[in-house]
Design a protein that fits this description.
By secondary structure, the chain is of the alpha+beta class. The protein is built from 2 helices and 10 strands. It is globular, with a radius of gyration of 14 Å.
């Protein structure tokens, strides 16, 4: 099965864009990696129902943290009740798909911590505020990710 993620973007990416996961632009993860026995258009439909189509995601950057199985992925936590609410709605819808499985269940629901993944082209200062106006569904392709759908808030 294919692996997917749902992210809020500060700047749009074209549908079909494939980009190295190490060079991803700034984004807030709304639903971390998951698999489902559903077609991409069905995943897109349920995310469209759950994602905030009418209003952008307002965030405030918080403290640094380390994510990933080896605790080597640098992130800046994001303070946003809105992101938590969107995650919960998206999770409700995605979990209804046949064959759904979160790759890291500990990072879903009560374990969800909104964050900005930091990298060579992504930095943020604590207390900065930003608005993400786009929600993307991406297919995880090993070291790359491909944008399958993009919604403008």
């Amino acid at each position: 099965m294919k692996s997917y993620a749902v992210v809020a973007l500060f700047n749009p990416l074209d549908i079909g864009t494939t980009i190295s996961r190490h060079a991803w632009p700034g984004h807030v993860t709304l639903a971390s990696n998951f698999t489902a026995a559903a077609a991409a258009d069905q995943i897109t439909e349920v995310v469209a129902e759950a994602a905030p189509a009418a209003e952008p995601l307002s965030v405030r950057f918080g403290e640094h943290a380390l994510f990933g199985p080896n605790h080597d992925v640098r992130v800046r936590l994001v303070e946003s009740k809105q992101a938590v609410s969107v995650h919960s709605r998206v999770a409700d819808h995605l979990e209804s798909l046949p064959g759904f499985a979160a790759e890291e269940p500990a990072y879903w629901r009560d374990g969800y911590r909104p964050h900005l993944t930091l990298g060579p082209s992504v930095t943020a200062t604590e207390c900065d505020r930003e608005t993400a106006s786009f929600v993307a569904i991406v297919e995880i392709l090993d070291t790359d990710a491909k944008v399958l759908a993009l919604f403008h808030a």
